[in-house]
Write a structure and sequence with these properties.
This protein is mostly helical. The chain has helices at 10-21, 44-52, 55-78, 97-108, 112-122, 124-130, 134-138, 144-177, 193-210, 212-224, 228-246, 277-303, and strands spanning 183-184, 190-191. 35% of the residues are buried.
């Protein structure tokens, strides 16, 4: 018996001591426990399935599918109004399926599409912090750079699915209600149906790349705050502010440096003679903004004090 009144078995103590001395706990070259593989933590497939099961993902994708049919209904209701024409692509929306796709991208490009991207990326790290699960993910341990990368890739894939799903469903709805036909621009250019499908595909690719700046900013804000709504709202407000400033002609050439200045550069594809200038500038601008925001997010997350 020990001094504290606890019974001890000398033979058992000797056995435990001997077992501990012969226990092999190898250490790898990087200092980690032998057998630990960072690449096996937080697999992309697991994160994607987790995100797809979330109600907000299901609602977003469901609304994207429903939106083209809402637009069709709006046009059907508005047919009885003799003064419904407002000019531009709105008047030509019912001319053919390609024109209807152009309208869907046009009306959603100002607010809906940036919001979708901001929602997926702004919810990455901030949501884990708000649920107090971020510190447990890092304690698995998942390396910080891998955690941020895997969540960003999953958010990017979901954003691409949503952004591509909209024109795809709009094309199907357009074919059902308005039929196949030439894509007609407000300037009178007419593009054959086959060529218009290529233009729609390129437009979707451009929209995805152009909104990369929103993704980068939302990711940065998600790292800076523990409130998902703050990260999402901050990115959306930045997009709205940029659009407002872009309307102020007094700013002159300074507007060219706004991230939303070339948001509708894809509209130049609906022409017989395509001018690639705006699209090239839009891609360059988006890539630069997205890269800067992503690097800042990675640097901040690498040194952030995780308390939740």
């Amino acid at each position: 018996m020990s001094e504290n009144g606890v019974h001890t078995d000398p033979a058992a103590l000797d056995e435990l001591t001997d077992a501990a001395e012969h226990t092999h706990s190898g250490v790898g070259a990087d200092g980690a426990v032998e057998g630990y593989r960072p690449g096996r933590t937080l697999r992309l497939g697991v994160e994607l399935r987790r995100q797809l099961r979330r109600r907000r993902t299901q609602l977003v994708l469901g609304f994207v599918v429903l939106l083209p049919f809402i637009l069709v209904l709006a046009f059907e209701i508005g047919e009885s109004s003799p003064n419904r024409r407002s000019g531009g692509f709105v008047d030509l929306a019912t001319a053919s399926a390609p024109n209807f796709v152009v309208l869907a991208l046009f009306v959603s490009g100002t607010f809906l599409l940036p919001t979708i991207v901001a929602l997926f990326f702004g919810d990455t790290i901030a949501s884990e912090a708000s649920w107090s699960s971020l510190k447990y993910l890092l304690a698995i341990p998942v390396p910080r750079h891998r955690l941020l990368r895997q969540k960003a890739i999953a958010s990017g894939l979901l954003s691409v699915v949503a952004l591509v799903l909209l024109p795809l469903v709009a094309l199907v709805a357009g074919l059902i209600f308005y039929g196949a036909g030439d894509a007609v621009s407000p300037t009178g250019d007419a593009i054959p149906f086959g060529q218009s499908l290529i233009a729609i595909g390129l437009s979707a690719v451009y929209v995805v790349i152009q909104l990369a700046w929103v993704a980068g900013l939302a990711l940065l804000l998600s790292v800076l705050t523990d409130a998902p709504l703050g990260a999402v709202g901050g990115a959306v407000l930045a997009a709205i502010l940029s659009q407002i400033l872009d309307q102020i002609t007094a700013l002159g050439t300074l507007r060219n440096y706004l991230p939303t200045h070339y948001s509708y550069g894809w509209m130049d594809l609906i022409a017989t003679d395509i001018d690639w200038t705006n699209m090239a500038a839009g891609v360059l601008s988006a890539v630069i903004y997205a890269t800067v925001f992503a690097l800042l997010a990675a640097r901040r997350f690498a040194t952030k004090d995780i308390t939740s």
